[in-house]
Amino acid sequence: MVKALVVDDSRFMREVLKNILEKGGIEVVGAAENGVEAVEKAGALNPDVITMDLEMPEMGGLEAIENIMDETPTPILVISSHSTKKAEMTMEALDRGAVDFFVKPGGDKSIEISRMSSELVQKVRAVAGTEPVIDISSERQTDFKGIKDIEGQPTLIIGASTGGPKCVEKVLSDLPLESGFKIIVVQHMSSPFTKQFAKRLDRSSEYKIRESGERDKIRVGEGLVARGGHHLKVISYQKDRVGVRLTNSPPVNSIRPAIDVTMMSAARKVDGVLVGTLLTGMGRDGVDGARAIKEVGGSVIVQDEATSQVFGIPKRAIEAGVVDRVLPINEIPKNILDVVRS
What we know:
This protein has helices spanning 11-23, 35-45, 61-71, 84-96, 117-128, 164-174, 193-204, 259-269, 287-295, 313-319, 332-341; strands spanning 3-7, 27-32, 49-52, 76-81, 100-104, 155-160, 182-187, 208-211, 215-219, 222-225, 231-238, 241-247, 274-278, 299-303, 325-327. It is α/β, with parallel strands linked by helices. It folds into two domains: 3-128, Response regulator (Rossmann fold); 147-341, Methylesterase CheB, C-terminal domain (Rossmann fold). Strand 6 (155-160), helix 6 (164-174) and strand 7 form a beta-alpha-beta unit. The longest helix has 13 residues, at 11-23. The relative contact order is 0.11.
């Protein structure tokens, strides 16, 4: 049985979370009302997973996450809420070691979280099953030789879920602007978190990255992050630009934005070099999209098990036989360039 530690400064929310998790078959071994207690109980109770609030007295969630990662590394699921401030804090929490986050509907102390109990339980179980991965902050391994000879101004689509933000950032920060990609990122994430994620990618990459608009165009040297809560479809293609639009069509693979929607639409429209990359995450989203890319002569690269926090999406694609290369995250940027060179 998965053992969880619940951390929240609201007694009401601690009880709500405890009831949801226990009804879902997860043993709640303890609770903490601030970061100081969270650090102490993480060491004393040895939970499989911690649900972490961010704004708490004495010690906030960000500091608590950092201390736990230093002293007793434990998978952490941040419990956040819809606001720009919380989105910024949540991105910082992922930087400090949290695996994923769950958005509380209806505000910090709303009972509405109960209607999403099954999704919360699923996320807690997924995060509990993660393992620490190798350092992905190493120096760029990109081989610049032949970059100027790349033709066709290639299109790159990156799909990721649980554990994905750091890995997406690693790939984009290692891709040189000279390679001339047009980039689309589909990260399983809600809005306004996708906007903050795009800003973070823009700061760390040579490419100009932004959250997608209702109708948008991606030019050479630019990238878009699919806006949370919407599918992103490729609707037009020219050598130097890709046209996209957002849709509110039903979730695919129980998620919106779905990787499959973007990859399959790109396979139909992109008449040029097309590369699909699937990174860490749970579920099978991206498998059909990868197959579509392969069918039109594109290439598919997936992250290996050793560096994936959740080896779900890449594993399903490998099992489906729609993958060209399986690689550690640090080697993926170089191999993306190798693919388009060839």
